[in-house]
Write a structure and sequence with these properties.
The protein is of the alpha+beta class. It has two domains: 2-174, no CATH class; 182-249, 2-Layer Sandwich (Alpha-Beta Plaits). Helices cover 60% and strands 9% of the residues. The protein is built from seven helices and four strands; from the N terminus they run αααααβαβββα. A four-stranded antiparallel beta sheet has the order 2-3-1-4, sandwiched between helices. α1 packs parallel to α5 and α3 (85-110) runs antiparallel to α4.
Length: 252
Protein backbone atom coordinates (compact mmCIF):
# COMPACT_ATOMS: atom_id res chain seq x y z
CA UNK A 1 0.00 0.00 0.00
CA UNK A 2 2.75 2.47 0.97
CA UNK A 3 4.68 1.69 -2.18
CA UNK A 4 1.55 2.26 -4.27
CA UNK A 5 1.00 5.69 -2.70
CA UNK A 6 4.68 6.50 -3.25
CA UNK A 7 4.41 5.48 -6.89
CA UNK A 8 1.35 7.71 -7.29
CA UNK A 9 3.26 10.64 -5.82
CA UNK A 10 6.11 9.83 -8.17
CA UNK A 11 3.73 10.05 -11.13
CA UNK A 12 2.57 13.46 -9.94
CA UNK A 13 6.15 14.71 -9.64
CA UNK A 14 6.96 13.33 -13.10
CA UNK A 15 4.00 15.29 -14.43
CA UNK A 16 5.28 18.45 -12.73
CA UNK A 17 8.70 17.88 -14.31
CA UNK A 18 7.09 17.46 -17.73
CA UNK A 19 5.20 20.72 -17.12
CA UNK A 20 8.47 22.54 -16.30
CA UNK A 21 10.30 21.05 -19.30
CA UNK A 22 7.45 22.22 -21.52
CA UNK A 23 7.81 25.71 -20.07
CA UNK A 24 11.51 25.67 -20.97
CA UNK A 25 10.61 24.44 -24.47
CA UNK A 26 8.06 27.25 -24.88
CA UNK A 27 10.39 29.96 -23.62
CA UNK A 28 13.43 28.85 -25.60
CA UNK A 29 11.63 28.19 -28.89
CA UNK A 30 8.97 30.91 -28.94
CA UNK A 31 10.58 33.68 -26.86
CA UNK A 32 14.21 33.30 -27.93
CA UNK A 33 14.66 31.34 -31.16
CA UNK A 34 11.51 32.13 -33.18
CA UNK A 35 10.80 35.32 -31.18
CA UNK A 36 7.08 35.13 -31.84
CA UNK A 37 6.13 36.64 -28.49
CA UNK A 38 7.21 37.61 -24.99
CA UNK A 39 5.31 36.50 -21.90
CA UNK A 40 3.51 39.87 -21.62
CA UNK A 41 3.48 40.89 -25.30
CA UNK A 42 -0.15 42.07 -25.30
CA UNK A 43 -0.17 43.79 -21.91
CA UNK A 44 -0.50 47.58 -22.47
CA UNK A 45 2.26 49.78 -21.09
CA UNK A 46 4.84 47.01 -20.63
CA UNK A 47 8.04 48.16 -22.32
CA UNK A 48 10.80 46.00 -23.80
CA UNK A 49 12.86 46.04 -20.60
CA UNK A 50 9.96 44.63 -18.62
CA UNK A 51 9.15 42.14 -21.37
CA UNK A 52 12.64 40.64 -21.28
CA UNK A 53 12.72 40.76 -17.48
CA UNK A 54 9.42 38.86 -17.19
CA UNK A 55 10.69 36.27 -19.65
CA UNK A 56 13.63 35.76 -17.28
CA UNK A 57 11.33 35.46 -14.26
CA UNK A 58 9.27 32.90 -16.16
CA UNK A 59 12.39 30.81 -16.74
CA UNK A 60 13.27 31.12 -13.06
CA UNK A 61 9.82 29.79 -12.11
CA UNK A 62 10.33 26.79 -14.42
CA UNK A 63 13.67 26.18 -12.69
CA UNK A 64 11.92 26.10 -9.30
CA UNK A 65 9.25 23.69 -10.54
CA UNK A 66 11.87 21.43 -12.12
CA UNK A 67 13.95 21.40 -8.92
CA UNK A 68 10.91 20.54 -6.79
CA UNK A 69 9.90 17.76 -9.20
CA UNK A 70 13.40 16.25 -9.28
CA UNK A 71 13.52 16.34 -5.48
CA UNK A 72 10.14 14.58 -5.32
CA UNK A 73 11.28 11.93 -7.81
CA UNK A 74 14.50 11.43 -5.84
CA UNK A 75 12.50 10.78 -2.67
CA UNK A 76 10.27 8.35 -4.56
CA UNK A 77 13.37 6.60 -5.88
CA UNK A 78 14.85 6.23 -2.40
CA UNK A 79 11.65 4.46 -1.40
CA UNK A 80 11.86 2.24 -4.48
CA UNK A 81 8.65 3.79 -5.81
CA UNK A 82 9.80 5.94 -8.72
CA UNK A 83 7.68 5.24 -11.83
CA UNK A 84 9.68 3.79 -14.69
CA UNK A 85 9.17 2.78 -18.29
CA UNK A 86 5.87 3.62 -19.95
CA UNK A 87 4.37 5.08 -16.77
CA UNK A 88 7.24 7.55 -16.36
CA UNK A 89 7.06 8.54 -20.03
CA UNK A 90 3.29 8.88 -19.87
CA UNK A 91 3.39 11.16 -16.83
CA UNK A 92 6.08 13.33 -18.42
CA UNK A 93 4.04 13.67 -21.62
CA UNK A 94 0.87 14.51 -19.69
CA UNK A 95 2.72 17.29 -17.88
CA UNK A 96 4.34 18.50 -21.11
CA UNK A 97 1.02 18.75 -22.90
CA UNK A 98 -0.66 20.12 -19.80
CA UNK A 99 1.57 23.19 -19.88
CA UNK A 100 0.39 24.08 -23.39
CA UNK A 101 -3.25 23.50 -22.43
CA UNK A 102 -2.91 25.81 -19.41
CA UNK A 103 -1.00 28.39 -21.46
CA UNK A 104 -3.61 28.42 -24.23
CA UNK A 105 -6.66 28.67 -21.97
CA UNK A 106 -5.22 30.99 -19.32
CA UNK A 107 -2.60 33.14 -21.09
CA UNK A 108 -4.02 33.29 -24.62
CA UNK A 109 -7.80 33.34 -24.15
CA UNK A 110 -8.70 34.29 -20.57
CA UNK A 111 -5.97 36.80 -19.66
CA UNK A 112 -4.92 37.73 -23.20
CA UNK A 113 -1.32 38.49 -22.21
CA UNK A 114 0.11 36.97 -25.39
CA UNK A 115 -0.71 34.74 -28.36
CA UNK A 116 1.49 32.16 -30.10
CA UNK A 117 2.16 34.60 -32.97
CA UNK A 118 1.17 38.07 -31.88
CA UNK A 119 1.76 39.61 -35.31
CA UNK A 120 -0.41 37.06 -37.15
CA UNK A 121 -3.67 38.13 -38.79
CA UNK A 122 -5.24 34.86 -37.57
CA UNK A 123 -3.81 34.38 -34.05
CA UNK A 124 -6.53 31.90 -33.05
CA UNK A 125 -5.48 29.53 -35.83
CA UNK A 126 -1.90 29.52 -34.53
CA UNK A 127 -3.14 29.04 -30.96
CA UNK A 128 -5.22 26.02 -31.96
CA UNK A 129 -2.50 24.50 -34.15
CA UNK A 130 0.08 24.81 -31.37
CA UNK A 131 -2.32 23.47 -28.75
CA UNK A 132 -3.11 20.43 -30.89
CA UNK A 133 0.50 19.63 -31.81
CA UNK A 134 2.21 20.27 -28.47
CA UNK A 135 -0.67 20.08 -25.98
CA UNK A 136 -3.44 17.65 -26.86
CA UNK A 137 -1.34 15.17 -28.88
CA UNK A 138 1.29 14.65 -26.13
CA UNK A 139 -1.45 14.40 -23.50
CA UNK A 140 -3.27 11.72 -25.51
CA UNK A 141 -0.06 9.75 -25.97
CA UNK A 142 0.81 10.16 -22.31
CA UNK A 143 -2.61 8.90 -21.22
CA UNK A 144 -2.27 5.89 -23.52
CA UNK A 145 1.15 5.06 -22.04
CA UNK A 146 -0.20 5.33 -18.50
CA UNK A 147 -3.09 3.00 -19.30
CA UNK A 148 -0.70 0.54 -20.91
CA UNK A 149 1.34 0.45 -17.74
CA UNK A 150 4.53 -1.58 -17.60
CA UNK A 151 7.77 -0.70 -15.92
CA UNK A 152 7.70 -1.67 -12.26
CA UNK A 153 8.48 1.19 -9.84
CA UNK A 154 12.02 1.23 -8.51
CA UNK A 155 14.93 3.45 -7.62
CA UNK A 156 15.40 4.75 -11.16
CA UNK A 157 18.86 6.22 -10.59
CA UNK A 158 19.82 6.34 -14.27
CA UNK A 159 16.44 7.75 -15.33
CA UNK A 160 16.56 10.42 -12.63
CA UNK A 161 20.11 11.41 -13.60
CA UNK A 162 19.08 11.73 -17.25
CA UNK A 163 16.04 13.83 -16.38
CA UNK A 164 18.16 16.03 -14.12
CA UNK A 165 20.69 16.62 -16.90
CA UNK A 166 17.86 17.41 -19.33
CA UNK A 167 16.31 19.95 -16.95
CA UNK A 168 19.65 21.62 -16.20
CA UNK A 169 20.55 21.67 -19.89
CA UNK A 170 17.29 23.27 -20.98
CA UNK A 171 17.40 25.77 -18.14
CA UNK A 172 20.99 26.66 -18.96
CA UNK A 173 20.12 27.11 -22.63
CA UNK A 174 17.47 29.62 -21.58
CA UNK A 175 20.16 31.72 -19.87
CA UNK A 176 22.41 31.86 -22.94
CA UNK A 177 22.90 35.30 -24.54
CA UNK A 178 21.36 33.90 -27.73
CA UNK A 179 22.31 33.44 -31.39
CA UNK A 180 20.37 36.21 -33.13
CA UNK A 181 22.16 38.91 -35.13
CA UNK A 182 21.30 41.49 -32.47
CA UNK A 183 21.60 41.47 -28.69
CA UNK A 184 19.01 42.70 -26.18
CA UNK A 185 20.48 43.67 -22.81
CA UNK A 186 18.54 44.70 -19.70
CA UNK A 187 20.57 46.61 -17.09
CA UNK A 188 19.89 46.79 -13.38
CA UNK A 189 18.61 49.96 -11.70
CA UNK A 190 21.00 52.63 -10.46
CA UNK A 191 23.37 52.61 -13.45
CA UNK A 192 23.87 56.01 -15.06
CA UNK A 193 23.09 56.12 -18.80
CA UNK A 194 26.49 57.66 -19.44
CA UNK A 195 28.26 54.77 -17.75
CA UNK A 196 26.23 52.20 -19.70
CA UNK A 197 27.01 54.00 -22.96
CA UNK A 198 30.72 54.10 -22.11
CA UNK A 199 30.79 50.40 -21.25
CA UNK A 200 29.03 49.53 -24.49
CA UNK A 201 31.49 51.61 -26.48
CA UNK A 202 34.39 49.86 -24.73
CA UNK A 203 32.94 46.50 -25.81
CA UNK A 204 32.68 47.68 -29.40
CA UNK A 205 28.87 47.57 -29.40
CA UNK A 206 26.73 49.63 -31.76
CA UNK A 207 23.43 50.74 -30.21
CA UNK A 208 20.57 49.96 -32.62
CA UNK A 209 17.84 51.04 -30.19
CA UNK A 210 17.81 52.16 -26.57
CA UNK A 211 15.27 53.11 -23.93
CA UNK A 212 15.27 56.65 -22.50
CA UNK A 213 17.45 55.64 -19.53
CA UNK A 214 19.59 53.12 -21.44
CA UNK A 215 18.19 50.46 -19.09
CA UNK A 216 17.29 48.30 -22.11
CA UNK A 217 19.26 48.37 -25.35
CA UNK A 218 19.31 46.51 -28.65
CA UNK A 219 22.90 46.12 -29.80
CA UNK A 220 24.94 45.06 -32.78
CA UNK A 221 27.63 43.23 -30.84
CA UNK A 222 29.96 40.33 -31.73
CA UNK A 223 28.61 37.11 -30.24
CA UNK A 224 31.81 36.36 -28.35
CA UNK A 225 31.41 39.59 -26.33
CA UNK A 226 27.81 39.08 -25.19
CA UNK A 227 28.77 37.34 -21.95
CA UNK A 228 30.87 40.41 -21.02
CA UNK A 229 27.65 42.42 -20.67
CA UNK A 230 26.91 40.58 -17.42
CA UNK A 231 30.14 42.00 -16.02
CA UNK A 232 29.00 45.51 -16.99
CA UNK A 233 25.80 45.43 -14.93
CA UNK A 234 23.40 43.61 -17.28
CA UNK A 235 20.76 41.48 -15.57
CA UNK A 236 19.55 39.67 -18.68
CA UNK A 237 21.09 39.27 -22.12
CA UNK A 238 19.30 37.70 -25.07
CA UNK A 239 19.69 37.31 -28.81
CA UNK A 240 17.30 39.07 -31.16
CA UNK A 241 16.26 38.82 -34.76
CA UNK A 242 14.86 42.00 -36.31
CA UNK A 243 14.94 44.64 -33.57
CA UNK A 244 12.40 46.91 -35.20
CA UNK A 245 9.74 44.18 -35.16
CA UNK A 246 10.64 43.13 -31.64
CA UNK A 247 10.47 46.67 -30.32
CA UNK A 248 7.27 47.37 -32.24
CA UNK A 249 5.08 44.56 -30.95
CA UNK A 250 6.56 44.82 -27.47
CA UNK A 251 5.11 48.34 -27.18
CA UNK A 252 8.52 49.72 -26.22
Amino acid sequence: MGRTRGSSRGLVWAGVLGFALSGFFDGILLHQILQWHHLLSLVPGVDLREQVLWDGLFHALMYVLAALALAGLWRAGRAGAMPLGARLGGALLLGFGGWHLVDAVLSHWMLGIHRIRVESEVPLAWDLLWLGAFGLAPMALGWALLRRGGGRPGRGGAALAALGLLAVGLGGWGLRPGDGPYTVAVFGPGLAPGRIAADLEALGATVVWAGPEMDVVVLDLPADRRWALYGRGAWLVGGAGLPVGCVGWSRA
